[in-house]
Amino acid sequence: MSNRKIIITIGSSRHSRNFEFSIPLKSKYKVCHISDEDKFGNAKSSKTILEEIMLVSEKEVPCGVISFARSTVIGSVENVAESLEKLNGEGIFKGCKLIGPSFIAAKTLSNKWLSAKSMKRHGFSVLRTVNVNNLNLKDVYKKLESGLFPLPAVLKATYLSGGAGMRFIRKARDLIPQYNFQKKQEITESILTEFLIGPEASVEMLYLGDHIFVFPMSIKDPTNESLDHGDNKVKIAGYLRPLDKIQAEAVDIAKKYKASGYFAIEGIVYDLSKRQWKIMEGTPRFTGSYPMFNATLPHFDSMRAIFNFIDDRKWIPSLKTKQQIVIQIPVFMSSVSMAKKSVDKLKQFEWIVFARVENLSELPFSVDNRIRIQVTFKAGINSDWLKRIHVMQGILDDKTMERRIASSIKRLDEYFPDLVYKKDILKNV
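RE: above sequence
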């Protein structure tokens, strides 16, 4: 038997590598990774995943199994969760820490229709939602025409995240052609939600064992009728104190569904005076934006926190830890090669959290052909942020960055003047 203890990761190889890098050198732990993908784009069955876990564990009982299931692999979040639940229910690995959402959380929250129905039943604040399919399409049209469902509205793909496949429904007559457009894109299940205007709040948390740690909240610019993709807007984390009622509801949802591991809830703050929101979706998995939330807290890392939890060390950061402002902004370029060269130049600066190039035409059901660079950076204090923006503007050849970020910050000052974490922390806005 080996002297090293094993930790099994399932799903994203990138997240698995990041987790492995977080483990101290000369550690007694070894990471064994299992892919969640069977055929291109489809997940392995829970039975297959469980068999592979048992195969890896033939010589050594793992001390931890972590779900890094991906939304881009159809069925992954649910199937990995089901395999972990079977491990837990059958008591196969005594003392092994299983990190990932419950099967009910994975199954419910990965489906926008099930999620909306379930959350409403439990009394949570959700967008008004109706299921749309071939059988009830005419009935939904009649509801819109008679005013029984509010207009404008948004038609969304049930299983897709990040705004993929969304269509704007201004009038009742728009529903059927937009639904048919989705069908041509091979979107077979849809929902219709009310359209609300307001800043989009994201509450992200790490739920390990019996403890939940909530990261500083992030806010995105309001969505307009163009339904601009969330990643095409400025996102700011760490600038505000928590919206208490909203944060409390997000934590209640995590507990209700046992959404352990990394969990996020997004919603629209539609009533600024009363600080009321309606939930758009819950995400029971690690997302690509988790480094942004890590960066709001000096010296904190979600992956290291998970390792510390498995190793029975303290993992929750001190209450005295001061939050930092982190800003994410998209920039568009004409070619992938130019974008990659620019990203390489940006990565030399320690205040860049991450910068990645995305060909939007390659995203699921995208009708956008642009090349996007997603830049996330630490704002610093006083005039640091202006200097950093000017550096990025030069490298990326985009002079609009300062104006776009300043506009977003001013909106936050107007929306939530009493919640700004530190007045005047960003000078000359």
